[in-house]
């Protein structure tokens, strides 16, 4: 038994059954050989190409070339019947179109019941959904008296997904298909659906993954990052997953989703100027960062400096500029919001992190070296404190779970990751208090090692020991 699905037993075949299977295998090979000759026009095309391709699809449901051939035949028929419908508003052409589409969806449904994890079948079904939408648009354009009913295939597709996920709740093909449906038509009430699936089984990682995608679509809507942080969406979602942790504290999935959710609001920001010369400056961030080439402006005595190169090395960013005598250097870090890689610039390390804290660093020089002042915009100072408060609340929550689950390793691991988030944020508020976080984290590392001293416990201990 795995993921609630029974593992099929290895069959012991008789000699007669082995012979029959060998004969069937040879039949399939002969049929494929003939099909590829048809495909290359090396033999005459069959009279009924759809019936022929249907026979081949049932015989070999995983061969993509069969569906390519079938799509070409279907597209020809769609174009022909669509042309008749446009020219003469033929009721007969409309009925043939609807019958053709419905029968194709039915055929795929039958094959999916036998082969629910077939890439080729799900790809073919996507193609059919798109064609049915095109035909619906055609019907709408000529349907002035509302005599012709739209196909509206999307509705039945959501129902199909629900039924198939009832059979196998972790079939990622179905989840991916449903996610694709949501991307072209928001009809499926994904919030309610994923919540229902999680409540049915708190270890359903697929439901958490799909819910995270749905959540980010809504969370990313406000362009103002301050509005995002203060929105009820993240608080409501946090409450939901905290309830799940209380109910199922030994399920790894609930902790993973909670960790992901808390990480959504984690910011990137400059903590200090590490090094400086007449042609380069090295900035240290609170966490590893990438792709920030367009995030800086430099000025010397209020004159703009031309940036030559921006190089990222872990938490450090080295900015090279035209060499000159520096007197009063100003470094401006620009605010950017990142939405799933949609913009040219994308901060990574944690895929879910969305914004870079804007600030302005003034560097002055004297005989002893340089002094620096980092000023964060006031509204973003408030945002950082809101994030810090949110982190404290979640850390306190996990501490409560630890009190009730003293021998459960998952909450100990969770709090160590939350401390990592806390450390990053604290560096932007007051780095001098970072040592307190490290000290508490190491105490929890010791407790975790007593419960289960495995490679993950050792990894976390080594991580916190470096500070």
UniProtKB/TrEMBL annotation:
The UniProt record lists the keyword Transcription: no
Transmembrane segments: none
One Gene Ontology term from the biological process aspect of the record: endoplasmic reticulum to Golgi vesicle-mediated transport
Keyword Transferase part of the UniProt annotation: yes
A Pfam family annotated for this UniProt entry: PPTA
GO molecular function: Rab geranylgeranyltransferase activity
SUPFAM superfamilies named in the record: Protein prenylyltransferase
Family statement drawn from the similarity comment of this UniProt entry: Belongs to the protein prenyltransferase subunit alpha family.
Name of protein: Geranylgeranyl transferase type-2 subunit alpha
Species for this entry: Paramecium tetraurelia
